[in-house]
Amino acid sequence: MTGKSRFLVDGIDTAATTLVLAPGAGAPMDSPFMQAIAQGVAACGVRVIRFEFPYMRRWRDTGKKTAPDSEQVLKKAWLDAIDELGGGSRLFIGGKSLGGRIASMIADEAEVHGLVCLGYPFHPPGNLARTRTGHLENLRTPTLILQGTRDSFGAPKEVSGYRLSRTIRIEWIEDGDHSFKPRARSGRTEDDNLRAAIALVAAFIGRKHAGR
Question: Does the reported pTM lie above 0.85?
Answer without folding.
Answer: yes
